[in-house]
Amino acid sequence: MEPDQWLAQYGQKIEEAKRNAVQAENRLGGVGGSATSGDGLVTVVVNASGALTDLILRPALRGEDPERISSSIMTTLAKAQREAAGQVVEIMTEFVGEGDALEFVKSKMPNGYSGDGTDPEEPQPEIQRRDTRPDDDYFTNPPEVMG
């Protein structure tokens, strides 16, 4: 291969890498996460790096133990950060693929990331837990109540 041809190919690879970097940066700019505490009294929003961008505390928290409020904020914040980190990992997987670079990104997520296999199972909403069988089926084959 001639030096001029090699240099042209190298220049094309650099331009492609720049385009990919700009595209990744644009996609990552829209990443964020949010979570609400189980009791619905604390809501947090974070950006792609996991930094807190919004904190909503409901009036029902007035008079609550400050340690309980702090714990609720921190737990909810970690959930939002895991959500945002999951989006970052998903985007980076598209750009760098599986391998050492992606493992490095994953290792820098302070609370892990959604989809890392450590997420607690969310309980099904009450509407999905209801037994919606017709009454005849329900009473013919009732659910086991006592185990």
What does this structure look like?
There is one protein chain. By secondary structure, the protein is mainly α. Helices cover 52% and strands 12% of the residues. The protein has a three-stranded antiparallel sheet. Helix 1 packs antiparallel against helix 2. The mean pLDDT is 83. GO terms for molecular function: DNA binding. This is DNA-binding protein YbaB. It comes from Saccharothrix violaceirubra.
Structural class: mainly alpha
Average per-residue pLDDT, rounded, comes to 83
Using the CA coordinates, give the radius of gyration.
24 Å
Q: How big a fraction of the residues is strand? A: 5-15%
Q: Quickly count the helices.
A: 5
What is the CATH superfamily of the domain at 31-116?
Nucleoid-associated protein YbaB-like domain
* Apparent shape: flat
**How many β-strands, per DSSP?**
3
Read across the widest sheet, the strand sequence of neighbours is 1-2-3
Largest sheet, strands/sense/barrel? 3 strands, antiparallel
CATH fold-level topology of the domain at 31-116: Ybab, Chain: A
Could you state the order of secondary-structure elements as H and E?
HEEEHHHH
Mind telling me the CATH class of the domain at 31-116? Alpha Beta
Alpha carbon gap, first and last residue = 76 Å
Measured as a percent range, the helix fraction is 40-55%
At CATH's second level, what is the architecture of the domain at 31-116? 2-Layer Sandwich
Poorly predicted ranges (pLDDT <50, ≥5 residues)? none
Protein name: DNA-binding protein YbaB
Pfam family, one: YbaB_DNA_bd
Organism: Saccharothrix violaceirubra
InterPro entries: YbaB-like_sf, YbaB/EbfC
